[in-house]
Amino acid sequence: MTPARKPAEKPPSTVDPSAEVQRILAAVDAIPLGRVAAYGDVARDAGLPRRARLVGRVLSRLPSGSQLAWHRVVDAGGRIRVAGASAREQRRRLKLEGVEFAAKNRVDQAFFVVPRHRPAR
To answer: Which of 45, 83, 100, 113 could pair with 27 as two cysteines, CB 3.0-4.6 Å apart?
Structure first.
């Protein structure tokens, strides 16, 4: 009889997950009224480069009625990445803050906290 194998253990994280969440929330909270930031920029500002998906996950788990300005976070191309009623609510809130939308339903690049540069075609 062979002994049971233990599952591989993950090395302990160097960052407390709740600390990561708090840093993401603080970075979102720092986005000024009438401006937007990309998920990746929020992650970088939270000290979590290359963790844009984590930002999306954290924002998707906010409790209903949260006062955090989650609507100020869009993708790098200026697109709203949530669907349905949440997308309509995000667009409504951004418009109330004076954010303008350009062609193809994207937030105008002038409204990004960190200007986005599209590659020349």
So the answer is: 45
